[in-house]
Amino acid sequence: MHILLVHQAFTTLDEPGGTRHHELARGLAAAGHRVTVIASRVSYLTGRSVPAAIESADGVTVLRAYTYPALHKSFVHRVFAFFSFMVSSFWLGLGVREVDLVWGTSPPIFQGATALLLARLKRVPFLFEVRDLWPAFAVAVGVLRARPLIRLTEWLERTLYRRADRVVVNSPGFIDHVRSRGARSVALVPNGADPDMFDPGIDGSRFRQEHGLNGRFIALYAGAHGLSNDLGVVLEAARELGDRPDLQIVLLGDGKDKARLEAQAEAWGLKNLRFLPPVPKNRMREALAAAGACIAILKPVEAYRTVYPNKVFDYLAAGRPVVLAMEGVIREVVEAAGAGISVPPGDPAALAAALRTLAGDPEKARAMGLRGRAYVEKHFDRAQLAGKLVRIVEELGGI
Question: Domains in the chain and their CATH numbers?
Fold first, then answer.
């Protein structure tokens, strides 16, 4: 089969950001299918341009569509970026020949309309994947407030669920939501990780030396620096840990809020907190290996109890204990694995206390990390999850 994926935020393994779709696409290619991806020319994580040339690797071809480049300036600019990709990806998709299935994904939800229209014009099945409950999340955090736009996106959300031949979700917390809004056939292909990308036995010495972090217990956050990530709480926790110069918090990544967070850290004189630029997924092995513990955090918003964040599974696969400032289904995973310490979201004192605990008992931290690694290998190995997607795709294609 030839599968066409429309995904503005698609990230290859040599780019920073989540690589769920590149890994799943490689799994489809390994099963004998062709995968063509239409992605943005602008990195969703950094807001910077990426090469526009056609790329081909691991049986996956990536086409880059024009996207309005001011992704991180404001919500209005971001909407312009979404709509520009929606239009340009449609015209690019029209030229992709002999397609057997179109795979759309949200967010951004607007690209789902492109995928649906291409599927109907090409008269092939439409697979719609839900990675975040958008627009519900945007409304919950106050990013989306205009009633006309809320009504439009909620209408589009219901339309995509109802018209999809199959809806795939990446968290069990999403199933009730999509069914209540019209999804007829729902499958779970959860987020996970490729254990082979990580090695819990190495100490990340190169990363430590490169950034002057030798001799310190590193608490690493890796990912987006945006409104939902609540990294202001991490800065407050760093203030609580001012008496522990041996405990270094590292924020690795990029995003709309990074400049503001850097300014705040400088104003507070935080010497135990470092900001580092994002690294490609194929270099995350060394970064995570340098960590004594990893931080996963989201705002204390009820809707976020439903999510399975990618970063948590990478942390677990790297054999590193997780300090989890989230509630809901992902907490169930971490606690079932015995792989970390859960703290209430929005509570910097509790976050600081958990980091003190792990820094004070490295053997306990290491045992937690190894339990997490074993749990991912058993339940959330990306190769096994790709196999599940292969079966879904082949069923839709009549194979």
Answer: 2-192+381-396 (3.40.50.2000), 195-379 (3.40.50.2000)
pLDDT at residue 266 is higher than 70: yes
The answer to whether residues 272 and 238 touch, using CB atoms and an 8 Å cutoff, is: yes
Q: Record the tokens describing residue 77, joined without a space.
A: 């600019």
**Residue 328 near residue 307, CB atoms below 8 Å:** yes
* ∠ CA 297-338-175, rounded to 5°: 60
Per-residue pLDDT, 16 = 81
Q: How confident is the model over 319-324, as a mean pLDDT?
A: 98
Q: Which residues partner with 60 through β-bridges?
A: 35, 57
- Tokens 């690209």, residue? 111
Tens-place pLDDT, residues 63-121 = 999 988 866 566 677 778 888 999 999 999 999 999 999 999 999 999 999 999 999 99
Give one DSSP letter per residue of 340-359, joined into a string: EEE--TT-HHHHHHHHHHHH
Check residue 381 and report its DSSP letter. Answer: B
Q: Residue 192: helix, strand or coil by DSSP? A: coil
Tokens 């709480």 appear where? Answer: 233
Which amino acid would we find at residue 69? Answer: P
Q: b/e map of 219-231 (b: 16 or more CB within 10 Å)?
A: bbbbbbbbbbbbb
* Residues 60 and 33: beta-carbon distance below 8 Å: no
391: left (phi over 0), alpha (psi -120 to 50) or beta: alpha
Q: In this predicted structure, what is the pLDDT of residue 75?
A: 67
**Cβ atoms within 10 Å, residue 250:** 23
Rounded Cα gap, residues 186 and 199, in angstroms: 34
